[in-house]
Amino acid sequence: MTNDKLRRQNRVVIIILVILVCCGLGIHQYFNYALKPVDPSSKRIVHVEIPKGATDHQVGVILKGKRLVRSSFVCDYYLQTHKEAGVKAGTFKLKASYSTPQIVKILQESRESR
Hints:
This protein is mainly α.
């Protein structure tokens, strides 16, 4: 291989790596944004019914429909990767000022204590 070809290949590899790093950072920033509260100043209480046997995806869609999370996909992903006790079925009182991690914690709490 000539030096010229080698330099071109190195440039292509570096460009691809830079693009991948930028995409990774962008995705990371989006996830951080999506985990934040929808309305940090909201005092409104929203009653949410989680049916027995609901999947993580269904819970994310329910929460997105009630405008409690920014992204049902990110909520679903967060539920799957932060399984401590699993989501409990029942009615929950939530606020749009709660972050996705706060909502997930509430949904995973034991219903006997409420």
